Amino acid sequence: MKNIVIIGCGQGIGFAAAKILSENNNVIGISRSENSEVGNLNIEFHQLDILLENLDEINFPDVIDGLVYAPGSINLKPFNRLSTDDFKNDFEINVLGAVKTIQKLLPNLKKSESASVLLFSSVAAKLGMPFHASISASKSAVEGLTKSLAAELSAQKIRVNAIALSLTDTNLASQLLCTAEKREASGKRHPLQRIGNADEIGKMVEFLLSKNSAWITGQIIGIDGGMGSVKL
Hints:
The chain is α/β, with parallel strands linked by helices. It has helices at 12-21, 84-110, 133-153, 180-188, 198-208; strands at 3-7, 26-31, 44-47, 66-69, 115-122, 158-165, 168-169, 196-197, 220-223. The protein contains five helices and nine strands, in the order βαβββαβαββαβαβ. It has a seven-stranded parallel β-sheet, with helices on both faces. Strands 7-8 form a two-stranded parallel sheet. The chain is globular and about 45 Å long.
C-alpha cells in the first residue's frame, strides 16, 4: 500500500482525489478547511494552513510515494484592478506553497522506489485569456517548476507532472457558475460543450500516481474540454 500526501484535500479536486485514492492507499490529507464529508473518508486528516503553519507538526511516514498539491485560486480582474498583493497572494498559494511542501517531503519521496509529485496549472498559462493576468503568471511558474524538478529529480526516480485545468465544477469556481445561464455559457466556451467535474480530474490524479504512468514525467497534461488544443 502506497503512502500518499494530498495538500488541499478539504474540497474540490483535492477531496475527489482523496476519495478515490483512499480506497487502495494510505492517504494523509492536509487542508485549511474541512467539509462535512472528509470525516467519512478513510484518511489521516490534518487541518492546517501550510502557508502559515509548520508542517513539522505532522508525523509523516518515513517513505512517501505520492504527493499531490491541489490548492488553487481564481482571481479574475482587469489588469488595472489587480494589486501587487493580488499577484503575491496567487504566487504564494500556487507556487510557494508547493515549493514549501516539496522541500519538506523530498527526503521521504527519495526513499520511495518510484515516487510521483503532481501539481496543478491552468489552461490560462497556455492561452492568452483576458482578466487572467495574476493566475496565468503564477500557473506559468508552476509549469516551469514542474519541468525543472522533473529534470532534477529524475535521477532519484521521482516523477513530477502537472495537470492544466479549465473551468471545473468545484467550490472554488462557484462564483463563475452561480446561475444556470452562467454554467451553460461557460460550458459552450469549450469544444466539448461542458465544464469539467472533480471526479474526472481525480481519476487522472490516480493514474499519474500509479505504476501505469511510470514512464511519464515533466509533462503538462491538459484536462480542459479541448480548450487548450482545439479551435471551434
